[in-house]
Amino acid sequence: MKILLTGFEPFNKELINPSCEAVRRLPDRIGGAEIAKAEIPVSFTHSGPVLKEAITACRPDIVLCIGQAGGYAGIAIERIAVNLQDASIPDNDGVQPHDQPVSADGPAAYFSSLPVKEIVAGLQADGIPAFLSNSAGTYVCNHLMYTLLHLIHHESRPMQGGFIHVPYSMEQAAAKTPVPPSMELSQITRALERVVRILI
Fold first, then answer.
1. pTM score of the predicted model
2. Taking CA atoms, which of 17, 23, 68, 188 is between 20 and 30 Å from 47?
3. For the chain, how are helix, strand and coil distributed in percent, rounded to 5?
4. pLDDT, tens digit, for every residue of 52-103?
5. What contacts 144, CB < 8 A, 6 or more positions away?
């Protein structure tokens, strides 16, 4: 089995993005599965093509995209991606779409093809704060999740795909006032490894 995990570059003046930092820390093999990794730009224009290139390069059985959700206190397992781009802040290219579709010919929404409730239960059983989320937002994270699921559906690719949001790292939170919820980067990494083992 081959699993592709992606994380985003820093954005919105942050120096790090815990999604990418945690993905980098994962071993190259977990439970017999080969782990491929890719960094995704926080860009409505370029995130999809970079993801597609990574999928073409490694031909994974499962694609798990990870993003940062500042203010969350746990690991959010996303269930739904909507066909909407409505950004409250510009992306790293300075692009800020409003009320635009991700795909003009796509459906209103896609559901994750991962066992989302099983993942939440597995993380909680390991003492990791986790919850099921019914909204990946309308920023680049949702854009990437929708793009992934649209690709799987439209091209009938034999793979599963989904998205996870992680909190601020403790280092990020320490630099903010008031201090928002956060999680140690090592704990975020442990959560992602646990998710991979559940999927296997």
1. 0.97
2. 188
3. 30, 25, 40
4. 999 999 999 999 999 999 999 999 999 999 999 999 999 999 999 999 999 9
5. 6, 40, 47, 48, 51, 65, 67, 163
Q: How far apart (Å, rounded) are the C-alpha atoms in residues 160 and 55?
A: 12
Active site residues: 78, 141, 165
Q: For 150, how many CA atoms within 13 A lie in the half-sphere containing its CB?
A: 23
CA distance 135 to 124: 20
> Which two structure tokens, joined as six digits, stand for 174?
């320490």
User: Are the CB atoms for 30 and 197 separated by under 8 Å?
Assistant: yes
What pLDDT digit, counting tens, does each position of 174-186 carry?
999 999 999 999 9
Rounded (5°) CA angle 80-199-147:
35
